[in-house]
Each structure stands twice: as structure tokens, then as C-alpha cells.
Amino acid sequence: MVRDATEAAIRAVLNEKDFLNELDDKIGDGDHGLNMARGAQAAHEALAELDEEAGLKEVLQAVGEAITANVGGSAGPLYGAAFSEAARVVDEDCALDAATLEKIFTAMVAEIQKRGNADRGDKTMLDVLIPIRDSFAAENCAGKSFEDILTQARDAARDGLEFTKTIAARKGRAASIGDKSIGCEDPGAASSLIIFRALCAVWKDSLRE
């Protein structure tokens, strides 16, 4: 399931390359889709070199290293470091459940905050990733099935992307246009939603098998 979900996320990024470029063209360099597609292709090639039975930790590490080695721009190094940090904090044989996902997204958020010196409300990928992380917190999962928790996280991610349309960019190239960025979705937040939405679809399907 880990490999299938990762490959689904890779396909989703590749399919949305032009859309992400269009978003970035409004407030940045116009190459976010191109950079994300380059990272997705590198991740696909890295997965092909892994053993078929590779677990979550190995997959996260392979994806992180592939993105770091092949993607420039601002988002590439952040995504690469975030996936590598997530690999560092998970156990070899951990179950894919809410507790594991909280651990993963907590690590990813912290690494991006550290490297990007950003936080929620700065109009970045964190406006999607922090709501996802919070959705997996124990207090927000009590009494809910894993499928319901995934839906909760996906909806929080979607709302986070919508939120980026209402605020001015305070980090990255988009910060140079300030209030003129209001009304536009943040490209990094959009790619985070695209990835997470694809992962959720596969995870949910696996629960119904």
C-alpha cells in the first residue's frame, strides 16, 4: 500500500504540472509545476530501485533523497528535507495509522518551519501541512474510524489551500508583491494538497478491500 500510494501521488503531481505552473506564474517564477514534476520523476525512479517489500521508512527516505538531489527552487529542498526527516522519525515496521501520520507530519512541518523560517499564515505549504498534522492529533481522532480521520485531514488540507487565497504572501518570491498576492492560491500549498489527496484516495481504497 505504501508504494501504491506513493506512485499515485507521483502521478497526481505529474498530471497537475501545468496547473501548478499557472498558479506560480501569478505570484512567482512560474516553474513550481516543472520543479515538482522533476521531483516526482526522480522519486519514481528511486522507488523502482527499492525492493518490492520496502516499507514506509525506506520509501520516505528514497523520496526525500531523490527530491533533494534533483529539484531546485524553493520548494524542492523543503520537500526533500521534510520527507527525509519523516523517514528519520518513523520505525522500520510501523503501522500506517493516525499516530504514525501525526508523527510524520509533525516532523515534516517542523523541518519546513526550521528551513523556511515560516509558519501558518505566511501563505506557504504550511497552510496545508499544519492542518493535516493537527487532524491526526489524538484529541482530534478520538472515536473516529481511520477512514473518517483521513477525510477530516483531507478536508482540512482543502480548507488550508482556500485560506491561502485570503492572505498576502510573507515568504519567498511572492512576498515581493505583498497584498497583490491576495486572491491567488499558494502553489506550494496546492502541490501539498495534490499529494495528500492522492495518498488519501489509495489509503481509503485499501480500507475497503
Beta-strand proportion: under 5%
Q: Tell me about the biggest sheet?
A: none
Task: Give the H and E element order.
Answer: HHHHHHHHHH
| Sheet/helix structural class | mainly alpha
When the domains are counted, the total is 1
- What's the tally of helices? 10
How many E strands? 0
Q: Which CATH architecture is right? A: Alpha Horseshoe
End-to-end Cα distance, whole Å, is 12 Å
**CATH fold type:** Serine Threonine Protein Phosphatase 5, Tetratricopeptide repeat
CATH superfamily: DhaL domain
What's the CATH C level?
Mainly Alpha
| Overall mean pLDDT | 94
| Inertia-based shape | globular
Low-confidence stretches: none
The percent range for helix content is 55-70%
Q: How is the quaternary structure best described?
A: single chain
